[in-house]
Design brief:
Protein name: FPG-type domain-containing protein
Number of helices: 7
Strand order of the largest sheet: 1-2
Bound molecules: zinc ion
Keywords: Metal-binding, Zinc, Zinc-finger
CATH architecture: Orthogonal Bundle
Number of domains: 1
Shape: globular
CATH topology: Helicase, Ruva Protein, domain 3
Largest sheet: 2 strands, antiparallel
Domain FPG-type: 108-142
């Protein structure tokens, strides 16, 4: 199917094998959260599912994309396929109107700031930007390190 204007899209996330993912990320000095939601790098991963994928893979959203270890890359690939496949399976047979609620109910960390992480029970944390925010679990993903939140930093100045 040809759609005008999407010629610059990266490869579809579900079409990537583990080696393909490593190649796509190789040499990229961006933060992994930003990189995997860039549709020009990998197509098909939005803000919500990227939070879920990084949580399942136990990778920090601020990790440098091109510096992930082989183990992290393997975990990230597994998580990407699992989360996106689950999402597709859940949406089968759903009415469009109920999809959003269903999608939300299956989430582990995204949009769950302050609620217990389903893996470790610690509160899910949030990083906010001017126009968006994302969620992660410090215990599971960053070795307990709380990531800088620009909104909070600004308030503290
Ligand atoms: Zn956790």
């Amino acid at each position: 199917m040809k759609v005008p204007g999407i010629a610059a899209l990266g490869p579809d996330a579900l079409s990537l094998g583990p080696d393909d993912l490593a190649n796509v990320l190789k040499g990229n000095s961006g933060r992994i959260k930003t990189v995997i939601t860039d549709q020009k790098v990998i197509a098909g991963i939005g803000n919500a599912y990227s939070d879920e994928i990084l949580h399942v893979a136990r990778v920090s959203p601020f990790a440098t994309a091109g510096k992930l270890t082989d183990a992290q890359l393997a975990a990230l690939h597994d998580a990407m396929i699992t989360v996106l496949t689950d999402a597709v399976t859940r949406s089968v047979g759903q009415q469009a109107a109920t999809l959003k609620g269903e999608k939300r109910s299956g989430l582990r960390v995204h949009a769950r700031t302050g609620l217990p992480c389903p893996v470790c029970g610690d509160p899910v944390r949030e990083v906010s930007f001017a126009d968006k925010s994302f969620q992660y679990c410090a215990t599971c993903q960053t070795g307990g390190k709380v990531l800088a939140d620009r909104r909070m930093s600004r308030l503290l100045k």
